[in-house]
Design brief:
7 helices; about 190 residues; mainly alpha; about 80% helix; elongated; single chain
Length: about 190
């Protein structure tokens, strides 16, 4: 598994759903190219790339909010900075968990090729076995967490500050309307 995906792939995994096609296509291309460079036939490289990218597709299709809430909790934050940090932490947690799960799923798929594939697939898969799977999982989780935070922090900042600006403008409009209503009511009482 490639631990550092493109920024577009990382960003596409945040909303999940149909956007998961982007990281899955990236995983397919990387896996196919790697297998072909190692001498796999086009057919064997295609089967392997499809299997590996399907793990990416299934895990990346879950929106960040669902995994982030499950992992980081659903806490309401009072201040702008707390909301930005909270959103960033949720996205980092989701990306970390999803990258770890993808690494484990792809290691399992590789093991399936090593045991049940054609002679060509078994030989290639045996060369792709991890020397330390848990170290690979930790590294992919760290890369996912850092990538998720890097993508989410600026987005959260702009979203939360824009929301705060809208609220401030609404309050000002509300105060102005309230002042007009109070003056109108006061004028009516004076006239009576």
């Amino acid at each position: 598994s490639d631990f550092l995906r493109t920024p577009l792939s990382t960003a596409a995994s945040v909303p999940g759903g149909p956007f998961a096609v982007i990281p899955a296509a990236s995983a397919y291309n990387q896996e196919y190219a790697r297998a072909r460079m190692e001498g796999q036939s086009p057919e064997a490289a295609d089967r392997r790339a499809r299997a590996m990218s399907s793990a990416e597709l299934l895990i990346s299709s879950v929106p960040t909010g669902r995994i982030g809430k499950a992992v980081a909790g659903r806490q309401m934050f009072d201040t702008v900075s707390q909301r930005i940090l909270g959103d960033t932490a949720k996205t980092a947690a989701k990306e970390s968990v999803s990258e770890g799960a993808t690494t484990l799923a792809q290691a399992g798929i590789n093991e399936g090729f090593a045991r049940f594939g054609t002679e060509e697939e078994r030989t290639y898969a045996e060369g792709q076995r991890s020397l330390d799977l848990w170290q690979d999982v930790r590294r992919s989780m760290a890369a996912g967490g850092f990538g998720g935070a890097a993508i989410q922090a600026p987005s959260s900042y702009f979203q939360v500050t824009a929301e705060a600006g809208r609220r401030a403008a609404d309050l000002e409009r509300g105060d102005a309307r309230y002042g007009q209503q109070a003056r109108s009511a006061g004028n009516k009482r004076i006239e009576e």
